[in-house]
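Entry 14. Ran structure prediction on the chain below.
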Amino acid sequence: MFDQLSERLQSTLAGVRSKGRLGEEDVDRAMREIRLALLEADVNFKVVKSFTARVKERCLESEVLESLDPGQQVIKVVNEELTDLMGGSGRDLAFVDGGLTVILMAGLQGSGKTTASAKLAALLGRDGRKVALAACDVYRPAAIEQLETVGRRAGATVYQKGTEADPVEIAKWAVDLAREEGRDVLIIDTAGRLHVDEGLMAELSKIRKTVKPHNILLVVDAMTGQDAVSVAESFSEAVEFDGVVISKLDGDARGGAALSVKAVTGKPIMFASTGEKLDAFDRFHPDRMAGRILGMGDVLSLIEKAEQQVDADEAEELQRKMASEQFTLEDFLKQMRQVRKMGPIGNLLGMMPGMGAMKQLKDVDVDEGELDRVEAIILSMTREERLNPEIIKGSRRRRIAEGSGTRIQQVNNLVKQFGQMRKLMKQVASGGMPDPSQLAKATGRQARPRIRRR
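Output, structure tokens:
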């Protein structure tokens, strides 16, 4: 997401940063490049014009041009304005203390609203809240079945009365039932509609007046670009919503909708869907997203993802094993699975400051299939072999290769490089500096995920 825009902006700002002194011509040249980058990213023209005007005005102030590092000051200004453009500090849902919080989901047909409802349920469930979903889409074929399926996977209860019931009555009934059952949150999944469909828009307005939701979220498809912004404007006239959920953001390399919607509608992006899995759904932090676009990384999100997957006691035990060279292939498999739960490796690299700007990481994909092969090899070992890799010799290696569908050479490489990695980890865990030759061996071609050029 934001790949094209990120590359253009980072390239432009790198040129600004390299200059010891800046003049008005340098600022004008940079603004032209930024303007083109934003327009190519499908950002609303009026938003682009206003954004570049504010950035230029701030960059021409004496405290920027006459500072010891004017290039860095310009980057600081762009980062702050980009953060403000996407919503500033952002905002969270309004929750009722000790009672039921009702969230109404709205959006166009095909915007990903039902899936977003389940993803939001999963996210709130991870926060420790008891969540229920109300199936109020009685028009789309199999919509209720879809919600029941994804809702079950999200760990939420789904309330439904079938396709013959009135959506307004279903919503009212679901609110009453959720209160009786002591639920913390009820998410109402309404039918997708066209913003020109007056009948369905009136129905949505009636549901809002009947259940009086504490939050109304509009789901927009990032891949529709400027159409998503037009949809948001139309919905804001019919149903006053509180915030936006951007779906399919991972499929939009430009990001125009995410950068335009707050400025055009005045409503913040509150959540973003960044993948197909239920856990690929996060609170939207404008400051963190601005940092990622400008190549500054997103360390806070990376830490949060790690905290969700790694237990503190387990981490301490792992460090002890590393320091005493007791780290086994079972431990390695567990850690690899935890890292993969955090999301695609390429996305995690993008959260690390400066990684996006490294030439060797541009235009590459990490081959997740290589990690699958490593996992298959380890799972084909006996527990004794995983705990004591040094006993894996000829006949054992042949059996493991056949069981995992790999070659004996691949098994040999994994066992050999795991031994080298274990020595390196002991050295690092003990506070020492790794020997360069050991580092090269432990990160050999077969030990790391294969990288494939796009």
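The longest helix spans residues 408-429. Will compare against last week's run tomorrow.
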